[in-house]
Amino acid sequence: MLSSSPAVTTTAHPPQSPETYQIPLNLLSSPRITRRDLFKTLSVCIATPSLSVSIAAPANARGLFQMPPLRLSNRYYLVRAGESDYESLGIINTNPVAKTSVDSGLSEKGKKQTLRAALQLKAMGACDRNCWLWPSITQRAYQAAEIIAAINGISRSYIVPEYSFLDARGLGAYEGKKLESISEVYALDSISMKTKPPPISDGTPNESVADVFVRVTQLMSILETQYSEDTIVIVSPDSDNLSVLQAGIQGLDLRRHSELYFGPGEVRLLDANSIPVYKQPASAVYKCKNPPNCD
Question: How far apart (Å, rounded) are the C-alpha atoms in residues 240 and 170?
Fold first, then answer.
């Protein structure tokens, strides 16, 4: 017994005007439309300036990180690694070629400073609900991350080494000089964020504050894209990465980043409540209309 098929009701729609899609009229009357004809038609549609195509902007494009940010998706702790062997000798060492060398590791004093930093993080409850550790691959910073992980009960799988964005600031011709010479670099920084230390031929970069700012902004773009509502501990081998980052996050004049100097083993929570008292000095030298991009 054959069952009757249900009636199919079709609704007629008014045909679209050929001019709307810029389709050649001779193609519409062609008895046979080939695949090549369709590709040609598509290219005409795309290339036609009069064809308007509205594309919705992606919501919450968190990868487009700007300084200062409107908000942070994560909670951040900034940690400078303890004193290195080079620093214990009073010598500036910023050449990235030596960053994984044993000589770039923590000194005995630096290990104690890092231990205090790890205990401070524990007292602050930084990793009570777990946390991610993002240290520079520089020897002393990675050693510091391992100490922090051990004290706070964090698995080594939560240590994520950073290979370039957290390198110590390259100080060019100041490489190998006494640590006290860094005050000369900061004097240059206070004039312009684009001023670089004098270059040197041994491969040590000579980075301006603006160069460091680009690196730490790229780092934050990665972190704010990859994580959400997590706690991240950033471990840097030097102060400048952290002071420039903090100044940028808080919208301060980058030329004055050295006022936010991090001592070896120092820990800070980076949030809205940690913004320091900031007063613009009565000086044309520090006049800035668009912090942190001041020049």
Answer: 10
Question: Scanning the structure block, which residue is given the tokens 């004097």?
Answer: 187
Contact 253, 97 (CB under 8 A): no
pLDDT digits (tens, 9 = 90+) for 234-265: 999 999 999 999 999 988 999 999 999 999 99
Continuous H helices in 162-257: 182-189, 209-226, 240-249
What are the distances in angstroms from CA 134 to CA 143, 146, 237, 260? 12, 11, 12, 21
Q: Both tokens of residue 15?
A: 């045909």
At the fourth CATH level, which superfamily is domain 76-272? Phosphoglycerate mutase-like (3.40.50.1240)
Task: Give residues with Cβ within 8 angstroms of 200, minimum separation 6.
Answer: 172, 173, 175, 206
Compute the distance between CA of residue 274 and CA of residue 60 in angstroms, rounded to an integer.
26
CB 237 within 8 A of CB 166: yes
Please write the tens of the pLDDT for every residue from 160-178. Answer: 999 999 999 999 999 999 9
Q: Are strands 75-80 and 267-270 parallel, antiparallel or unpaired?
A: antiparallel
